[in-house]
Amino acid sequence: MKICALLLAVALTAGVSSAGEIAPWNLDDMIHPELREGLKAVPHFELTPETLGTFRKILAGNPESLPKDDSVDVRNETLPSGLRVRVYTPKTGQKEYPGLLWLHGGGHIAGTPEAAEWLMLRIAKSAGCLVAVPDYRLAPENPCPADIWDCYEALSWMPGNLPVRKDRLAVGGYSSGASLAASMTQISRDKKGPAICFQLLLYPQVDFVNDYPSLHQIDDSRVWCRSLQMAMLKFYPGGLISKLPDYVSPGLTEDLSGLPPAYVLTGTLDLSRDEAITYAQRLMQSGVPVELHVRPGIVHACEFLFTNAPVCVRIIDEYINALKEALQ
Amino acid sequence: MNVRNEPLKSGLRVRVYSPKNEKPEYPALLWIHGDNEDLPLRIADELGMIVAAPAYRQTPEYPYPADVEDCYEALVWMTENLPVRKDRVAVAGQSAGGGLSAAVSLMARDKGGPALCFQMLLYPMLDHRNITPSSFQIRGHRAWCRDFNLLALGMYLVNVSGDVPAYDSPSAADNLSGLPPAYGLDPFRDEDIAYAQRVMQAGVPVELRVIPGATHGAEAIFAEADMSIETVKALAEAMK
């Protein structure tokens, strides 16, 4: 697989930062006014091998009290490999639905399908689509690229085993999940796998360059930030960036032509801001229709931290609407 | 709605749109036109703002920097002579007007001029170089394209030799900190994204939207389309 030489050159000189000396920003001053109070209540976090379990618990939320919606059927399916896929189907009695493969975030080391159950229910209901969420294996217990191939297995399984329209299949996710979603579009293109009609990339972290200005500017561990990212890298991908397996850094893939239309979301205070914009722009330059929305004062995975803030409601409504339009 | 023309001492004409309701002060917008009058009327009406649109001198009769200076003059005049709220002054424009809006924002910062609370750059022309991928990819003469752009820039920069000044080509500015919050809507695609990204990296809150399939100037052509609704919405949000 050909890797984009320019971006990789930046990656390999990490340590000699091309971003220079950039001071971290004060998020309390710069965050969207509707989130200012909320941010004050979020504790700082240090990610270490000892605190990984705590990190996973925080992201998992409370699996004992999941939200319910009578208009959506929720069940678990187990694939022959043992991979569990949680499936959300609108109870509208159709023979077939548009489908979404959703890949949760969590830095490849945490996260569960149930953690964003509230959002999955909302997407299934509002976009009228079937949502499948694989419980892909996490690092470091299951090293990179186990997660990528679990996700691809779920994608390949969907069309023959779930009531989905083969011409209306989308992938989506946030953070590391957006990276996995981008990888799915490239693998499916290269291997002539299931046709994907749309990719929803929320706060995508799509390469392991880790040297963009935004990654230096955002270093406040109340949100996903530089120090958390650097701690995560010890668990995933591990090893030298130049020797990563194929599709681990979809943002470094040279040829982005023939990929599905994309909606890309990031915020000015998202540590992945610059790589998200770079990937969106490279997709556009490759002739892929892209809607890019960079929102001022918004931090990484904002709506998962401050779910009920009006700006977060607007964020979610906009991308569910983009998904709905793409699946029509 | 009151619409009137105000001649300034220099001879510059400024078209002023003001709401009819009586208030001591209004939020205000310097609107650096494209040709259509729909959007300034709508902004004045729906958002209760004073909109001032200078009939700035144009190329080829008046090359750079006549237009930037006219727009800046109109901005200063507006804040000193119209009943505007000094903390709610924004600048906006489409295409060449978007580039001029960015230039006026830089000039106001550098000269210590009127404080701007917002700059709205609608598919702005920000970079004279025409070297980005999108400047090559968007061709054919039905919408604004590479050939039109090169032709227009050739006429515009006739008096400039050596480095192109930042007030003409805001992308050439090294220092983008201390600028007002910005909203940018494409498609001089790559130069706009690059500029928006640099302004973000300087710590300015920027909203950047790139809409797929939108051709240059689509907003002026489809006044009721989503894009102009989004534009009015974003302005409303910023002027709160």
Key structural traits:
heterodimer, A: alpha/beta, Rossmann fold, 12 helices, globular, B: 240 residues, alpha/beta, 8 helices, 8 strands
Structure description:
The complex is a heterodimer of chains A (328) and B (240). Chain A has helices at residues 5-12, 27-30, 36-40, 52-60, 117-127, 146-161, 176-191, 213-217, 226-233, 273-285, 302-305, 310-327; strands spanning 72-78, 84-90, 97-103, 130-134, 164-174, 198-202, 262-269, 290-299. Chain A is an alpha/beta fold and 328 residues long. Chain A has a single domain (5-327), classed as Rossmann fold (3-Layer(aba) Sandwich). Chain A is globular. Chain A starts with a helix and ends with a helix. Residues 12-18 of chain A have low confidence and may be disordered. Mean pLDDT of chain B is 76; it is low at 157-161 and 215-224. Chain B has helices spanning 38-47, 66-81, 96-111, 133-137, 146-156, 189-201, 218-221, 226-238, and strands at residues 2-7, 13-18, 26-32, 50-54, 84-94, 118-122, 182-185, 206-210. In chain B, strand 3, helix 1 and strand 4 (50-54) form a beta-alpha-beta unit. Chain B is globular, with a radius of gyration of 17 Å. Chain B is built from 8 helices and 8 strands. Chain B has 240 residues and is of the alpha/beta class. The chains are: A alpha/beta (328), B alpha/beta (240). The interface between A and B is medium-sized, with 24 and 21 residues. Strand 8 of chain A pairs antiparallel with strand 8 of chain B.
